[in-house]
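Support case: alpha-D-glucopyranuronic acid complex. Customer-provided input:
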Amino acid sequence: MLNEIKRRNLPKTIPDSLTKDNWSAYRREMIVLFEKEEYGVTPEKPESICWEVKKQHDSVGGKAVHNLVNLSFDTPKGEFTFPFDTVIPNSDQPVPMFVYISFHPYGAGQYLPIEEIIDSGYALAIVNYNDVTKDTEDNFESGIANMYPRRNDGADWGKIGMWAFAASRMMDYIQTLDEIDKDRIYVAGHSRLGKTAVWCGVQDERFAGVVSNDSGCSGAAVTRGKKGEHVVHITKNFPFWFCKNYQKYIENEENMPFDQHQLLALVAPRLLCVGSATEDEWADPESELMGAYLAGEAYEMLGLKGLSGDIEVPVEPGEKRFGGKVGYQLRNGTHFLSRHDWLGYMEFFNGQ
Ligand code: GCU
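Agent response - structure generated as follows:
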């Protein structure tokens, strides 16, 4: 692995001069870089939010309460509202929560074993990403995309930034819930929404941890030397996920002033768990592992343990390399967010 890293000629994870004291200034600088060059500039947090809660019914056989929340806030073009769901297990104690950025409306799709998560003592806040802005090339006319004027300087936010921003607005609301343990709120997503979870968790330090499942290119995988998808593919198929400036790096990745391990490092000192699947060649498990491993350098600089275990010992299919503040798990199979993956993420957070 170490030879492989050298061969790829990756930028240093963190500068040699970095110390605990200048960590937060460095984080801010790097976030600006990732805004300008990859995901686009995130607007200011709205001054206030308001919401309407519609209690649905006791859910999961009476073990939890399911609410539908309509969350509103002011934007330059008026009020914007989006819906999301919360499912909170009955408990005497505040419980941890996943903010799950979802491909599907509540109760649909295969990626979310709600009962298992509730039985494990975790609450969920679930947003259907298409309710924030559509995952299509729509000239930024749907949902929240239409509510902020475009800057036209190459650094306009893309849809990953918009979905991430919505998850932060959910966090604004969650801060008001007594049932939730504010020190254990984690943002999670799969694939394009794993990229989104990482970008959200990097920017919003209220999240105590980030789950990146099979997030691949422009997510947890280091880009230089990876297999499968590259900037050339992702910006051609999904230009609207990113800012325009990212296209400068088409067939020019060697000149990116950053790589994805440096993004993951910005989650430090909080928790980071990266999951891959053995047959997910488009995302590239090895490059995702490398991203997680290298991000560990920031944790070590801060006096914490990064990815635990000897990185020269290959990660076996089915293995969970937990034990530090950065975790990595490798599932057998293809691109998917499975029950097995979720159980691993909860094991990682429970072990902290
Ligand atoms: C495509 C895309 C990936 C993305 C994936 C997904 O395969 O190329 O970057 O992660 O869709 O979101 O399912």
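Residues 191-192, 216-217, 229, 234, 237, 282 surround alpha-D-glucopyranuronic acid (CB under 6 Å).

Case will auto-close in a few days if no follow-up is received.
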